[in-house]
Sequence to fold (448 residues):
Amino acid sequence: YFIISAIFLYILYKGHKETRQIDYQTSSTMLQNILYANFGLVFYLIKFVLPFKLSNCYPLPDKYWGQPMLTLFRLAPLLVLGLIIFIIWKRKNKKLVFVSLFYFLNLLIVLQLTRTGPAVVADRYSYIPLIGVTYLVSDKFFDFFDRQKNKIFRIGLISISAAVVLLLSFLTWNRCGVWKNSYTLWNDAIKKYPNTFVAHNHMAIYYQQEKNYDMAIKHFNKTIDIEPQYYGPYNNLGIIYHDKKEYEKAIEYYNRGIMLNPYSHQQYYNLAYAYHKLNKLDDAVINYKKAIDLRKNYLSAINNLARALMDQKKFIEAESYIKLAIKYNPDYPHAYLAYGDLYLEQGKYNEAEEYYKKVDILIPDNPLAGNKLAVLYTVKKDYDKAIGILNGIIEKDQKNIQANLQLAKIYKQLNNQEKFKFYFNKVMEIDPSDKDVLEFKKQIDLIK
Fold:
């Protein structure tokens, strides 16, 4: 058993390491992590006996939980030492030794001796470790029960046991409702432990996914108020302001997050993407490369780096990164799309068409390739073919801004003012702040 446990412990460690959870950045010292580990060992045993105010996450015991848990946090090393001495004293009791090792080894990877996340204790960490404790308690109970001769006392024990089972069953059923969805889960944690920054962070993510940015910002800021050294909310606030097209503000938050955790490839990518949106290509290239340094096969970063280099007219270097993306994933459609754009930019229309059609094969129901082919046919002045493709896209999605914009451009070139105005007004209704729409509008204003 212990050999198998050691194997799976190693697999879990490697998984955490590869996803950089082992590198989670925190202000806690090694001494604090040891104290957190001792606290966890005692805390789970207490929750086993008193399963009340359960939560999927808890505050840090030495900072935001209040005096009772702070006292337990300080006493935990002495309590653990006492347990160790007791186990050594009773070492001939093989069941006790086995259960103790079972409990400790199954908790080892999540005791936060090396921080793998912002939480130091969580109920889910204890489910398997407490199986051994449950077995030991049950074994001792039945041993005690079998030694009782008084019938009334035995009935009393059975009644008490039944009541405990019913109570635990009710508590289990009640917890199921808490896990109904993300809102009920994190709202429960916040109600019970208002200073749990992990709960506020996840509640903010829930609101972010619902596009309720005001509430998301409120909870992200609350997360920062509680734990300013946690990088997560800075990155997510950056994403919110990016979605709101406030790129400078997004960059500010990404940089603050990177200061706290310089090992997050996602943050460097987001920062680069914001710079790219502002056409600050040198900064975009630098940060795309940093993201790739942290994650070699980061396809989105590799592909967007190629596009930033294309925008800088560095076509040879751009092509080398497109080839790298295809090397990592030969069926990655965005790399072939970038290849098509590269050849289109260089006036190699046949090669561009070949790669756009490759994208259409890889993702046949996606309008990406169709829009690009329409641009290519427009450049070649094959307007009928371009219009046919674009009408097909709009049939499936009337609000496809690229298709409507390209039709506006085509009819402008054909001097068909009626259809030009129709499609131009349509794109202004869909998204007047779109970068390509604004650029086209600027060109029209210059002509006027």
In short: The two ends are 80 Å apart (CA to CA). The first helix runs from residue 2 to 18. The mean pLDDT is 90. Residues 77 and 372 are 65 Å apart (CA to CA).
